[in-house]
Amino acid sequence: MPSSERMPSGTEFASLDRVNLVSTGLSGTNLERGSSHNLRVTLQAIRLNAPITKVELAEITGLTPPSMTNITRKLLADGLIVETGRRRGERGQPAVELAINANGAFSVGINIDRDHITMVALDFLGRVRARVAEEIAFAMPEQVIDFFTRNLAAIRASGEVDMDRIAGIGVAIPDDFGRVDMPLRPSDFGIWETFDLRQLFAAHDLDVFIENDASAAAIGELQFGHGRAAQTFFYVLISAGLGGGLVIDGHQVRGASGRSGEIGFLPLGKARRKPINLQDVVSLSGLFGHLAAAGFPDVGLGGLGKLKGAMAEAALAWSEKAADLLCEPILVINAAIDPEAIFIGGRLPAKLVDSLCGRLAVNIRHRGASLPARAPVLRAALAEDAAAMGAAILPFSSRFLPSRTALMKIEA
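^ that's the sequence the OP posted. Answer follows.
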């Protein structure tokens, strides 16, 4: 294997040693006004390393033992962490072990796309307590709020979520949602371009956080997927359209105008009267169009999980074409970003994603032989619900997770 290729084993992204936040640049601070940051850093250290003692937390965060005692006392009082027992077998008084309290906080994430709406409720450990999805083509605002209201009431009635501890609502939605032309797009779908999403959810008296769907998927992968090991990666989201999310050194990067990772808008071929973009081919809508042209119309998402015979061959041909078209953008990402991995997720069946990853890896190896480094292309740990889960993390990020930006504001 060439030294320029970093090909992890199948378990490399699944098994981790204790994550030291000092080494990742997210240590605590002794600044007078840094208490909020220290609470967040401690929570993150506990989430990534539990069960863990206060002594170990002090080592991981770089904070003093007295500071750690005060911080953990507050987190216990707020119900965000719990004591799980005592560590025995060591010299001295057995140390108390700490872990995140799964019921300490909850969050709701909703992914609005051109072919579906998905909603999840997460607990503070990131476990899905409730999930609902509906296949709705080009849902209008009133359909979205009806979906959300009905299912939030069902979640409340289930008793799975403490509604008093909901940190907020996260919304993941493609950029230019109402503007991009796609097959069967209704003429009045452009209303989304002027619609206030926060106002849509205002009746529920919860903080609302909005993010591009691919960026949200990358956030989900960072917090609960392979991103716990790969801190610099690019996430390719294949849904009704095509998007990308960029994470560098454990932080999602939005870019100067908030549009980083928008590979779906890359033009194919020479400019025409009606130019073709990458997402016109590499997307669910592109796949369905390819299948229809091959004599298999109206396959639907459920049909993709039952591919066989000639239809499976047609889908495989699409994956080979998609891998060919994705190769050059991925080569550029390798050269410009030097990621640890490229993750492919979204609503494609796992079998098709694996086929796409395999073919893309071959193309990159052959066409990118001169690159100094080539990252592995892998199926994302979070796939179908990645955007909804990433959306649900947004309120947690705002209230509980550490941020270098927040620390810079403290230092200013």
